[in-house]
Write a structure and sequence with these properties.
The chain is an all-alpha fold and 284 residues long. It has 15 helices and no strands. The N and C termini lie far apart (60 Å). It is a peripheral membrane protein.
Length: 284
């Protein structure tokens, strides 16, 4: 195996795209009439080069590689159809790409790659409602795909549908309860909705799981201060969750501890970052 083919395989195994490097390695091999390896690995390399060509806007190279794959695997290959759909997307033929993905899903509604390409295309076109519907349908079949739940949450957030976005993050947390980023997303969504009691619990969970998390500590401070303000209002003006929230002394201590931890984190980076953090915290 040539060095170039070996390097292509290493890039492929790392799951990185790196289109410039891929094309730089592959083009001399293709230009000399040589191949990209032997057996199944060769066709994986051709697919890798096709994707790199699409990424880099080398449409003629992408067309040539797609033709070679089509000749080898035939019109019935679902994988080749997906690549053809990607080519049409890149060439600006969105309607044709959508038709191809639709045909693939009609033949097999569990086709993960076709579903994800269709959703990505709809998002890129700003068709958020249709992208959301497609992603909901996808999750009906692939409910264990936590990344898809996060993607659906992001789509709902773009449409300002906060309760739906929160539900999606809950599903991701059920699958990975120790992931501090999921708890952070959930805390911030609840903060935005005004569910400050839930937000505070989740921000505290974030800093429990990630002990130097600046966003988590700032969330604790900001949320504790807002809950404290709410609890100081006349009883009839307090939100429904105020009674179940921590007592003022606890909230004050949480705010103080979060401030101390923030200054400690920034102080570790030097005197200037600490001074900037102090000024920022005094204003917030």
């Amino acid at each position: 195996m040539s060095n170039a083919v070996q390097l292509l395989a290493e890039i492929r195994q790392s799951s990185e795209r790196r289109p410039f490097e891929v094309l730089k390695l592959a083009e001399p091999l293709l230009g000399s009439g040589g191949g990209l390896g032997t057996g199944a690995d060769a066709w994986l390399a051709y697919e890798q080069v096709f994707v790199a060509a699409i990424d880099d806007g080398e449409m003629e190279l992408a067309r040539a590689v797609l033709g070679r794959l089509h000749k080898r695997f035939g019109a019935g290959s679902q994988r080749v159809k997906r690549l053809a759909g990607m080519f049409n997307e890149a060439a600006g033929h969105a309607a044709e790409a959508k038709r191809m993905y639709g045909e693939m899903l009609a033949a097999d509604e569990t086709n993960v790659l076709a579903s994800k390409r269709l959703i990505a295309m709809l998002k890129a076109q700003g068709q958020l409602g249709e992208a959301t519907a497609q992603l909901v349908a996808y999750l009906d079949t692939h409910g264990n795909d936590f990344e898809a739940w996060l993607e659906l949450s992001a789509l709902y957030l773009r449409q300002q549908l906060y309760p739906q976005a929160a539900f999606c993050v809950e599903e991701a947390i059920l699958q990975q309860p120790a992931n501090h980023y999921f708890h952070l997303c959930y805390a911030e969504i609840n903060y935005t909705m005004g569910a400050l009691d839930v937000a505070l619990k989740e921000f505290l969970r974030v800093v429990e799981l990630s002990t130097d998390n600046v966003r988590g500590f700032y969330g604790v401070r900001l949320t504790a201060d807002r809950i404290l303000e709410a609890k100081r209002r006349p009883k009839k003006e307090q939100p429904a969750w105020a009674d179940a929230a921590p007592q003022p002394a606890t909230l004050e201590r949480l705010s103080e501890l979060a401030t101390e931890r923030l200054l400690s984190v920034y102080g570790a980076a030097g005197a200037a970052p600490k001074r900037a953090a102090e000024a920022w915290l005094q204003q917030s």
